[in-house]
Specification:
Shape of chain B: globular
Structural class of chain B: mainly alpha
Largest sheet of chain B: 2 strands, antiparallel
Number of helices of chain A: 10
Radius of gyration of chain A: 18 Å
Number of strands of chain A: 10
CATH superfamily of chain A: P-loop containing nucleotide triphosphate hydrolases
CATH architecture of the largest domain in chain B: Orthogonal Bundle
CATH class of chain A: Alpha Beta
Helix content of chain A: 25-40%
Distance between the termini of chain B: 41 Å
Helix content of chain B: over 70%
Order of helices and strands of chain A: EEEHEEHEHHHHEHEHEEHH
Strand content of chain B: under 5%
CATH superfamily of the largest domain in chain B: MetI-like
Strand order of the largest sheet of chain B: 2-3
Strand content of chain A: 15-25%
CATH architecture of chain A: 3-Layer(aba) Sandwich
Distance between the termini of chain A: 42 Å
Shape of chain A: globular
Chains: A alpha/beta (about 260), B mainly alpha (about 325), C mainly alpha (about 300)
Radius of gyration of chain B: 27 Å
Strand order of the largest sheet of chain A: 6-7-8-3-9-10
Oligomer: heterotrimer
Number of domains of chain B: 2
Chain lengths: ~260, ~325, ~300
C-alpha cells in the first residue's frame, strides 16, 4: 500500500485549491524581451506540461512561478503571478515562503553533498521545526516519489552514492517534504534512462490530485503521454493551451502543428 | 532586500501568520547581510586609513614651521653645506649636532641593492618560468614548483640571517672586498625574496597563452624554442612586464634582508661592494630611537609614505598589465 | 616536444634549465646550511626553557609562546574578516557592481603594501591613536594601550595577511557549483541560510588553507611587529592583551645584529632560525597538502 502524502497547510483561508495563475507576465533581459505577456493557469488534479523549442522561454516562465528568476538581477519582471488568488510578488510576501509553497525539480539531479536523509531534511530544517515531525514527512515524500523501498535502508549514505534516476527521485522527494501546493519540474527526465523516466511519470500521476504539477519538457512524446493539458510556447509567447489530446490531434495554430510534427524544433 | 526589478501585481496577499522560526531566519538573514557588507567595506577603509595616517605623519615635513627648522623638502633633495663649512654634500645623519637629512645616500643605496636583486632575480625567474611552461619534463615541474613555494615561504629574516652568516663570508672569500656586508650581499638575499613572485606571475602569463598559438607555430615547422621565443614570449609580454614590476615593488619594500645584510651605511658610492642603506632599512633601524613628533620622526614617515605610494603605483601598473595580457590573449584566440 | 633545433636553440634551452637548477640549488643550500648548523641544538629543553646567560644558553620557549599567542590573536581577527569579505564579493554584491571591483582593488593593493609600512601604520594608528584613545577613555590617561602591545601587533599582522585569507576563500567559493545554491533557494532558504548551511561547509577546506598560509606569514614577518609589540627580552610571558611579547623572527633579528658576542650565540641563533624555518615550512606544507587534496577531490566530482 502506498501512502498518500497529506497536503494540509495551517491557518489557510478559503480558495486553497493550489491553483497558480500568471497574468500578463513579461520578462526582459539585457533589453531583449524573453516573455511577451503570458497568461496561463494550472490547477490541482491535472498535469500541465509546457512544450516548445529551446529559447522559447519555458524555463524562464517556470522560474517566475517560484520567484527564482529574480536571483539574477539582470532580469526585469512585469505582470503578476497569483497563488490561490494572492500575488506572490506582493511586497509583504516573504520570498522564502513562496518558494516553500511552490517547489521545483531541476533538469539535472542535484543532490546536496550530504546524506540521503539530510538532503530530505534540508527543507524542514531551515525553519527549525521539531526533528520528530520530519521523519513522517520524509517517509511520505519518499513513497510519493516511488523511492522509499529503494532507499529506506540507505538513508545515512551519501546521496552521491545513488544512481542518476534515484538521485532525481530524491530531488523530487526533497521538494515534496515541504508539502508544496505547486510542483514545478524543469525537464526532469532529460538525462535519465526510460525506466527512471517512467517511474517519475508514474509518481507525478499519483501526485497530481494533491499537488498542482507543471512540467516543462523538451520531449514532445513525454508531454503527450504524461500530461492532461499542454501549453505550447514559442519565442516568449503562449501560442496555445488545450487538453493534451486535443492539442496533439487537432492543434488550432499552424505553428503548434509544425512543432509537434517535428517540422522544426 | 529585493533582487531584480519587480513591478508588483494588483492584489496584496494577506500577511498570514508566518511561523516564528521562519521569521527568525529572516531576521538572521538581515543581520548577516549588514555584518558582511560592513566587513567587506573594512578592507577599503583599511587602505584609506593607511594612506591617511601615514600621510598625516609625513605631512609636517611639507607644512610645519617647527619641522622646517630642521628639515624640509629642499634639504632632503638638494646638496647641503657641511657643518664645518666645507664643500656642499649629501649626507644622511639625523642624529648629530646639526642633523642632516639628505635622501640621496638612501636613494643610491636603495637603487644599488634593488638593481642587483632584480638583475639576478628576473633573468633567473623568467627563464625558469619559460622553461617550466614550455620545455620542462613533468619531473622538473614537480621539483621546481614546490621549490618556489618553499622559497616564497622562507621568512625574510631567515634569508637575511643566511646572507649575513654565510653569503657574506663566501663573497668576501671569493672577491676579497673590504666590507662583508654590502650591496651585493644584500642584493643576493633580496633576489631570493623576489624570485618567487616574478616566477609565479611570469609562469601564469606563459601558461595562459592559448595552446592554439603554439600549435600554429609548430605546424609550420618551427622548433619548440622558436615557438617559445617568437610566439609565446611576445604574446605574454604584458604578463612578464607585470612580473618584473611586481618583483621590483617587492624588492623596494623589503626590509629585513637589507637591514641585516647591507651594512647599513648611508654613503654615496656607486661601488656595489660598499655598504649601503635603503629607505626601508632606515625606517626600521631608526624609528625605534626617534622622538615622537620630532623632525626626524616626520622625515621617517615621509620615507614610509613614499614607499607606500611608490609600491601602490607599481602594483597598479602590474595589475593593469595582467589585465592587458588577458585581453590580448582572449581577443586573439 | 622537439627541443630547440640548432645550436642557438639548444643553448638557450639549456641555459633555462640551468636557471631552474640554480634556483633549486639556492633553496637546498639555505635549508641545508641551517639544518646542518642548527639541528644539533634542538632539544626538548631548547624548546621549553627560557634564554639564559645573555642568549648563549637555555631555550627559546618565550619566543615560541609569544609567536603562538600573536598568531592566535591574529587568526581570531583575520579569519572572520577575510571570510566575510570574500563572501560579500562572491555571494552578496550584485554581479557587475562597482563595489566588488573596489573591494578587490583594495585587497590587491593591501597585498602589495611593504611590511614596514604596515609596521608604521600599526605604530601610528593602533598604538598612538586607538591605544591612546582607549587609555584616555578607560584608564584616565594612564599608559596602558597607547604603547606597543601584543593586541596591536596581532591586528597589524591581520591586516597584512587579510589578502591571503580573502583569496583562498574566494577560490573555495568559486569551486562550489551554482546548482547547490539554487537548490537551497528553491527549498526556501534565505541567503544567509544558504551560505551557512551549504556554501561555508563546502568552503571549509579552502578557508583552512588560507588560514594556515596566513599563520605561516604571520609567524615569519618581523617588520610589522618591530614597533607594535615585539621585544627582545622580557622577564614574563605575555598574559594580557596589552603586554609585549617575544617573537621568533624578531629574536633572530636582534640576536644576529646586536649580539655582543656573535660567536658565542651562534649555535643558539642557528637553532632558533631552524625552529622558525621548520614552523613556517610545516605550516606551508600542510596548507599545500590540504589544497591539493581539495583540488583532487573536485576533479573527481566533476
Amino acid at each position: 500500500m502506498i501512502d498518500e502524502p497529506q497536503i494540509a497547510r495551517p491557518g489557510e483561508k478559503a480558495q486553497e485549491d493550489g491553483s497558480i495563475r500568471s497574468e500578463a507576465l513579461q520578462v526582459r533581459h539585457a533589453r531583449q524581451q524573453i516573455l511577451k505577456g503570458i497568461t496561463l493557469a494550472a490547477r490541482r488534479g491535472e498535469i500541465l506540461s509546457i512544450i516548445g523549442p529551446a529559447g522559447a522561454g519555458k524555463t524562464t516562465f517556470l522560474r517566475c512561478l517560484n520567484r527564482m528568476l529574480e536571483l539574477d538581477t539582470a532580469f526585469e519582471i512585469a505582470g503578476d503571478v497569483l497563488l490561490d488568488g494572492r500575488s506572490i510578488y506582493a511586497r509583504d510576501v516573504p520570498v522564502a515562503e513562496v518558494r516553500r509553497r511552490v517547489g521545483m525539480v531541476f533538469s539535472i539531479p542535484v543532490p546536496l553533498p550530504l546524506t540521503v536523509y539530510e538532503n530530505l531534511a534540508f527543507g524542514p530544517s531551515l525553519g527549525g521545526a521539531k526533528r520528530n515531525s520530519w521523519d513522517e514527512k520524509i517517509e511520505a515524500a519518499l513513497r510519493a516519489a516511488h523511492l522509499w523501498d529503494e532507499v529506506k535502508d540507505r538513508l545515512q549514505e551519501p546521496a552521491r552514492n545513488l544512481s542518476g534516476g534515484q538521485q532525481q527521485r530524491l530531488c523530487l522527494a526533497r521538494a515534496l517534504v515541504l508539502r508544496p501546493s505547486v510542483l514545478l519540474l524543469d525537464e526532469p527526465c532529460s538525462g535519465l534512462d526510460p525506466v527512471s523516466t517512467a517511474r517519475i511519470e508514474e509518481a507525478l500521476q499519483q501526485l497530481k490530485k494533491d499537488v498542482t504539477v507543471i512540467l516543462v519538457t523538451n520531449n514532445v512524446k513525454q508531454a503527450a503521454r504524461a500530461s492532461d493539458r499542454t501549453a505550447f510556447f514559442l519565442f516568449g509567447e503562449l501560442i496555445e493551451v488545450d487538453r493534451t489530446e486535443s492539442l496533439f490531434t487537432t492543434p488550432r495554430d499552424r505553428r503548434t502543428a509544425d512543432y509537434i510534427s517535428g517540422r522544426f524544433g | 532586500m529585493r533582487d531584480g526589478r519587480v513591478l508588483s501585481g494588483s492584489r496584496q496577499m494577506n500577511t498570514q501568520a508566518v511561523q516564528r522560526p521562519w521569521k527568525k531566519a529572516a531576521l538572521a538573514d538581515r543581520v548577516a547581510s549588514h555584518v558582511i557588507r560592513f566587513c567587506a567595506f573594512l578592507a577599503i577603509v583599511a587602505l584609506i586609513l593607511i594612506f591617511v595616517f601615514i600621510g598625516r605623519e609625513a605631512l609636517p615635513l611639507l607644512t610645519s614651521q617647527e619641522v622646517h627648522k630642521e628639515a624640509d623638502l629642499a634639504r632632503l633633495l638638494l646638496p647641503q653645506p657641511a657643518s664645518s663649512g666645507g664643500a656642499a654634500g649629501f649626507t644622511w645623519q639625523p642624529v648629530s649636532q646639526t642633523p642632516k637629512y639628505s635622501l640621496l645616500p638612501l636613494f643610491v643605496g636603495t637603487l644599488k641593492v634593488t638593481s642587483i636583486a632584480v638583475l639576478i632575480a628576473i633573468p633567473l625567474a623568467v627563464a625558469a618560468a619559460l622553461y617550466t611552461s614550455e620545455f620542462a619534463p613533468p619531473l622538473v615541474r614537480e621539483v621546481l614548483k614546490p621549490c618556489i613555494e618553499i622559497l616564497a615561504g622562507i621568512p625574510s629574516v631567515v634569508i637575511g640571517f643566511f646572507c649575513l652568516m654565510v653569503v657574506a663570508d663566501w663573497l668576501q672569500g671569493v672577491f676579497g672586498w673590504t666590507y662583508r656586508l654590502n650591496a651585493v650581499t644584500a642584493g643576493v638575499g633580496l633576489s631570493l625574496a623576489v624570485i618567487p613572485i616574478v616566477f609565479t606571475v611570469a609562469e601564469d602569463a606563459f601558461t595562459s597563452v592559448p595552446q592554439a598559438f603554439r600549435e600554429g607555430s609548430l605546424a609550420m615547422g618551427a622548433s619548440a624554442w622558436q615557438t617559445a621565443s617568437r610566439v609565446v614570449v611576445p604574446a605574454a609580454v604584458p604578463g612578464v612586464l607585470a612580473a618584473c614590476v611586481l618583483g621590483f615593488g617587492r624588492a623596494i619594500g623589503e626590509t629585513m634582508i637589507v637591514l641585516m645584510a647591507s651594512g647599513n651605511a648611508a654613503i654615496i658610492s656607486w661601488l656595489p661592494s660598499d655598504s649601503v642603506r635603503t629607505f626601508s632599512a632606515t625606517i626600521a633601524a631608526e624609528l625605534g630611537e626617534v622622538v615622537f613628533g620630532s623632525a626626524h620622526y616626520h622625515v621617517l614617515f615621509f620615507l614610509g609614505a613614499f614607499l607606500f605610494v611608490f609600491t601602490f603605483v607599481l602594483n597598479l601598473m602590474g595589475r593593469w598589465w595582467v589585465v592587458q595580457l588577458q585581453k590580448r590573449l582572449q581577443g586573439g584566440s | 616536444m622537439r627541443k630547440g633545433t640548432g645550436i642557438g636553440g639548444m643553448f638557450m634551452v639549456s641555459m633555462m634549465a640551468l636557471a631552474c637548477a640554480v634556483i633549486v640549488a639556492m633553496v637546498a643550500i639555505i635549508i641545508g646550511n641551517i639544518l646542518l648548523h642548527g639541528a644539533g641544538g634542538i632539544s626538548w629543553e631548547f624548546l621549553s626553557r627560557a634564554p639564559e646567560a645573555g642568549m648563549t644558553r637555555g631555550g627559546i620557549f618565550p619566543a615560541i609562546f609569544g609567536t603562538a599567542a600573536l598568531v592566535i590573536l591574529m587568526t581570531i581577527a583575520v579569519i572572520p574578516l577575510g571570510v566575510a569579505t570574500a563572501v560579500y564579493m562572491h555571494e552578496y554584491a550584485p554581479k557587475r557592481s562597482r563595489m566588488i571591483g573596489l573591494v578587490r582593488l583594495a585587497i590587491q593593493n593591501l597585498a602589495g603594501v611593504p611590511a614596514i609600512v604596515f609596521g608604521l601604520f600599526g605604530y601610528v594608528f593602533f598604538t598612538k591613536f586607538v591605544g591612546a584613545a582607549i587609555d584616555r577613555g578607560l584608564y584616565g590617561g594612564e599608559l596602558v594601550y597607547g604603547q606597543p602591545a601584543i593586541v596591536w601587533a596581532a591586528l597589524t599582522m591581520a591586516l597584512l595577511t587579510l589578502p591571503t585569507v580573502v583569496v583562498a576563500t574566494e577560490e573555495a567559493l568559486r569551486a562550489i557549483p551554482q546548482s547547490y545554491r539554487e537548490v537551497a533557494y528553491a527549498l526556501g532558504a534565505t541567503r544567509w541560510q544558504m551560505i551557512r548551511r551549504v556554501v561555508l561547509p563546502q568552503a571549509t577546506g579552502g578557508i583552512l588553507t588560507g588560514g594556515i598560509l596566513a599563520v605561516s606569514r604571520g609567524s615569519g614577518e618581523v617588520a610589522p611587529v618591530m614597533f607594535t609589540g615585539a621585544a627582545y627580552f622580557l622577564p614574563e610571558l605575555p598574559r594580557r592583551l596589552h603586554d609585549q611579547f617575544m617573537e621568533l623572527g624578531y629574536h633572530v633579528y636582534v640576536m644576529t645584529t646586536q649580539s655582543i658576542d656573535v660567536e658565542a650565540t651562534k649555535p643558539v641563533l642557528y637553532s632558533t632560525v631552524l625552529v622558525l624555518l621548520m614552523l613556517t615550512f610545516l605550516l606551508n606544507f600542510t596548507a599545500i597538502m590540504i589544497r591539493s587534496r581539495i583540488r583532487r577531490r573536485l576533479r573527481h566530482d566533476r
